[in-house]
Each structure stands twice: as C-alpha cells, then as structure tokens.
Amino acid sequence: MADDILIIGIDGGASKVSAHQIILKNDVFALGNHKAIREYQNYSEFQTDFIPVDLKTQLSEIQSHSIKLTEKELAQSKAYYRAFIDAINAIVTMSEFDKVLIGIGLPGIKSADGRGIIAMANGPRMPNFASELESRLVKNGINLVQPIAKLGSDADYCGIGEEYAEEGAFRMVSNAYYLGGGTGAADALKLGGKLISFDDCRDWLAKTWEFKSKDGKTMEAYCSANGIQSIYSEISSVPQNELIKQKVYLEQILYRAYSGEIEAMNTWEIVTETLALLLYERISTIYSGYQNIFEFIDPNHSDLQKDHEYLGTLLDKIIIGQRLGDIFKNKVAHEIIINPLLSKLTELVMSDSLLDEKAKSHYIKRSQFNSNILTTSRLRSAPVLGAGIDAWNSYVSI
Predict the structure, then answer these.
(1) Do 40 and 25 touch, CB atoms closer than 8 A?
(2) Is it true that 2-155+382-396 and 169-376 share their CATH fold?
(3) Share of the chain above pLDDT 90, in %
(4) Model pTM?
(5) Distances in whole angstroms, Cα of residue 223 to Cα of each of 32, 104, 198, 230, 231
(6) CATH number assigned to the domain covering 2-155+382-396
(7) Can you give the residue ranges of every domain in the chain?
(8) CATH code at 169-376
(9) For residue 155, which of 127, 129, 128, 121 has the smallest C-alpha distance?
(10) Rounded to an integer, what distance in angstroms lies between the CA atom of residue 238 and that of residue 332?
C-alpha cells in the first residue's frame, strides 16, 4: 500500500525545516533518496532579532484560554509556512508520486486537537498551523491522502526514530534516556522495553525546557545548540545574531575553548556542570523518585509525584543526540566536555544518599561514572523518521 504514496517526514525547529522521503520495505522504515532543508532566515519575512513572547506569559495565556498573538509572531510565522511549503514541494517535485502523506514534528505545546502550536520557547506561536499549511499546500497542487493527523513532539519522534531505525540507539536496550540538543532540547525515554512519552509521565517527570537553572534560565539553554550559543554570547559580550553572521556555532566555540579562550572555556564549564545535574536528575528521578532538584519555569507548575511504576529502574544508556551529540563526537570533546561531565556525574551519584549500592555500582566503575552508559546517537535523522512513521501508522489505522 505504501508503493503509491510519498511519505514525507518533517522535523521543524526554530531555525530550519528538514524534510525527507521515508520508505517502507519489509516492515522496516528507512530514509529515501529525496530530502530538502529550508532555513527560515532565507525568507524575507524572517526577523533576525525576533524574541519569543516570555514563556511565563505564554503559559498564562494558555491557562486563561486567551492567546494573543503579537504582530511579530504573525510576521515570523509567514517565514515558517513558506519554508515548510518549499521543502515539501521540493520533495514532491523530485519524486514520481502524486499522493502525499505528511508527518510533522515541532517543538512546543500543542493545541487540544494536536494540530497547532500554542506555546514555543524559541519561535512564534501558530495555533492553526496544520490547517493553514494544508490550505497552502492544496493551493500549490499537493494531493494529501489525509489531513495532517497531528503535530507530534520532536522529542517523541526522536524516540520513535531511535527505536525503529536500523542504527537506532534504543533498539538493543530496555531502559534508556535520550537527550537531543538542536535548536531546542528533545527528551525521549524507553523503560521496561517500551517507548514512554514524557507527556504520559508528566506527573512524575518533567521535560528539560520546563526546568529552571539556578540562574533563572530554562535548562534547555544548557543542552541545545541555540542555548549554548546564547550563553557564549552573554559571556563574550558578542550579540548572538553577530555570532550567527560570523558562523560561530558549537564547533567553533568548542575549538576556541580548546585553544584557551577564556570566554569559551567558561561557557563549556557552565554547560557541562549544568548538563551533568540534568542527567543526574534523570538517573535519580527514575530510580528514587523526584527530589526537587530544580524549580520550574512556570511558577504554577504542580509538584511532581515521587512514586511511579518505574522506581528502581537503572538506565542502560544515556544517549546524547542531534547537534549536541555531534559535538560530543568531536575529537577535542573528551577534554573540554566529556571528562568534566563524567567527573561531575561521579560526584553527584556518589553523594546521593537515596541511590543504594546496587545503583551506585551500576553507574560507577573504577571510581568513575561508567562511560559505557553515556553514548551518542548515530541517527541525526531520528525525528524525521519518527514523524514519517507516526504519519504512516495513523494512516493505516483508519
């Protein structure tokens, strides 16, 4: 049945949209030959100085059922729509299919019907995203076999991709946590051999972006490419848009630290210390229940429950993915990032009175955090695959 349908998986972030053909052969999903990437900044409507509405305000407006889009949000969203349409058109043009099925992953809080974005930390809110996109696609002659079922979580789609792709890091383990660092942060979880959505365990486990660091920033700032760049911007006193113009991204900041630049060294020191605390929170919460390690960005966020059905679970793997994962693979990352991270994790685990000897002997080997547990994803395309797989599953279930 998939032979006559073009499946397109899309990963939408705050800086670009990545679309890829997804193929299904012998019940195994893989990437096809056709892909397209479109950066929002290449469209005239894009505002390089765009600042999202304060997250507390966004959450408050959701609570009051009164979302007030700003003029800048409306303008910025036009660049998003154009990028999505161009990427989809490019793949359709390259292929020989006349029937199209689309799956989309986007960060942010979704509307009640799952087809809009009503809160986003790094971009404009788009409450009617799917309907507006479908309308524009139809005008462009795209034959959709069904409406976009929902806008999935890019985090959940990372998990689906890691589970079902041949090189997926979830495939051979029973218990694992995935942290993807791209424009934002993506959390995915596999416990007891099953993928667990963070939305389904919201009573006892929070998403990275919901946590507040000790300096008041969202924890997402310390594990996302955009966030780390913004931290370096503050420390170096170079505006972030200027860093973008100069093409100073994570790799460049890493090499600046390796060469001894104080500002870059300070950036990675802060990042690794905070990232270690986040990973430790996952270890501790899954095994012992939440211990109020972080405050929440939303002051009205309810307290997390300490009891849950997975208490006593030890993680086989902690997987770092997306652009943050790429940085972890860099040849100088061990000195600047990984070794300091492992040292901090060792300290945190060993000093935790709620982690018993079973847990500590699992995570600590030869007086150091077990480096075999910390690994990197080999699947940069995980969220794209996950989006296409989810769309297909929705289609065949009708």
Answers:
(1) no
(2) yes
(3) 80
(4) 0.83
(5) 30, 23, 17, 11, 11
(6) 3.30.420.40
(7) 2-155+382-396, 169-376
(8) 3.30.420.40
(9) 121
(10) 24
